[in-house]
Amino acid sequence: MTLDFDLTDNSHRRYNPLTDSWVLVSPHRAKRPWLGQKETASRPNEPEFDEKCYLCPGNQRASGEINPQYSSTLIFPNDFPAVKLNQPELKNSGGSKSLKERFMKVQSVEGNCYVICFSPKHNLTLPLMPLGDVVNVVEAWTQLYLKLESEAKVEGKPYKYLQIFENKGTAMGCSNLHPHGQAWCLSTIPNEVENEFKAFAKYSDQHSSCLLGDYVALELEERERLVLENDSFIVVVPYWAVWPFETLLISKKQLHSLTDFSDKEKRDLATILKTLTIKYDNLFETSFPYSMGLHQAPLNATQEEKDTAWFHMHFYPPLLRSATVRKFLVGFELLGEPQRDLTAEQAAKRLVDLEGNTHYTEKL
């Protein structure tokens, strides 16, 4: 008797075309992933204003600067940036490479880093903010992109790529719970983004089409991993997801960067972001931690770079079975390859079944 291979029961690997890598899937280890520790629903108890918070309006930051009495979003240079401008020139020797130069390569990186306060209210997060305020966040991202693009073009600043991201929650290393994200502007393109650009170019050469465009079409046809959809964007648990409830937000048509967005597309992005993050919070009735980031075209992109880029966002949340049970990448995953028990399809169904309009705290 020949048995059919069952992706919901038999171990297998799934290919990630964005990074040319594989993830091991072991669905037989978690036949019922919703079992496990159940936490009591908690209501966030942070105050609307915290006099000790470095990011609240009117407060003094660690640098000594005083925050303005802002009422919407606020962007300011990071007081402790990971990169800086006007560094001394790094001189590398040419010609033949010694053993030291082969193995101990170094490259100068210049740039600037920014903090983006989403709201003046200390006790809010994206899912709890009014939709109009989330639209303001999207607009702030766009204006920062345009500002830095202009500074690179007009003033000659060495800006090449703007990485916008948010670390939400202490589980993701967030040291300040005030709703905020960051933006690091570098003179280089970061590894993860560069690898995606290479994958996009390779796919285009092989198939004469866009990787993410084809992937959107496939997910809309199959709908097994589709979590959310509106006129402009989809959210899926990608087929190759590593984290239990990892999602990928992708524009339906090729938008190279935020600067290509119409007003409707900005609102559609804000709407789907709010709905997704409400679902995340409702999953384990907690303020759901994650790392989230935007991938888009470089600043002042060439036509070739624009043809390659396709706007999308990654969400990497660590929670597995409850508000306190986390997924760790250890052991085999550090030494071999990433592994997951919950399939992408199972994770998507869990997220689809959750409310996205009503936050769990509204029912407490």
From TrEMBL:
One of its GO terms (cellular component) is cytoplasm. Residues 197-363 form the Galactose-1-phosphate uridyl transferase C-terminal domain. Binds 1 Fe cation per subunit. The active site is at 180 (tele-ump-histidine intermediate). Gene3D superfamilies: HIT-like. InterPro entries: GalP_UDPtransf1, GalP_UDPtransf1_His-AS, GalP_Utransf_C, GalP_Utransf_N, HIT-like_sf. Residues 5-190 form the Galactose-1-phosphate uridyl transferase N-terminal domain. One of its GO terms (biological process) is galactose catabolic process via UDP-galactose, Leloir pathway. This is Galactose-1-phosphate uridylyltransferase.
